[in-house]
Amino acid sequence: MTTPATADLTGELRGRNALVTGGGSGLGLACARALLEEGAHVTLMGRRATALREARNLLGAHDRHAAGVTTHSGDVTNESHVASAVRAAASPGDHLDVVVCAAGSGAGGGPIAAIELDEWNRCLATNLTGAMLTMKHAVPLMGEGGSVVALSSIAGVLTHRYMTAYAVSKAGLEMLVRNVADEVGSAGVRVNAIRPGLVPTSLSEPLHSNPGIVDDYLEQMPLGRLGTPGDVAQAVLFLSGSRSSWITGQVFAVDGGHTLRRGPDLRRRTR
What we know:
This protein is an alpha/beta fold. It has nine helices and seven strands, in the order E-H-E-H-E-H-E-H-E-H-E-H-H-H-E-H.
């Protein structure tokens, strides 16, 4: 989860306010750390207050900017929770500059005929509707130079057999990003997405804990290694700052080249 040693830290986000949904763990936490190290004031939103406190303590133990971290408990599928978190993130200085939509949910694996409706709805509510609600409430508080970055997945463009709900949610997220970018560009607000490949986190544990599945993923990656949270965080950091000021409505694959080939063979997961 550490920032790569080669990162060029400039402090360009000093004085900026950032909101990271799903910021209590995994990719969200890595993104929060990267933004914090560039000087941003970061608000972590997540469902579990304990995880948020642990995340803040972790950032505080390793980062001299720890005073720039606050937490806000809430569920991105609940509109009032999202609105409250957005207001809290914007409160220092009454502006919001960076939003990272990292809250995500996996889905139980299985064929389409076995998908439970509740499972389908839960996955789409978190991965797609949650991002929509975050953008809905955040964008009006963002001005020239504001940046929204959503975390998609290679499942948004490569079929993942037996992970239909998840794949559909990420495909929808990418179209959401493109449409919102088209709407808000005239206000100087940019909206982009990162499309990670397999990165070991608690969310991806059912995949990266299976050696056969991992081997298949690696066979589809020209660079031949799994990703790290830091790989994703550095891409998010780029899209959050001035170095990407003429980029909007785009989805960047951070996947070791996986999307050059086919989706993973997940039959082992369902056996």
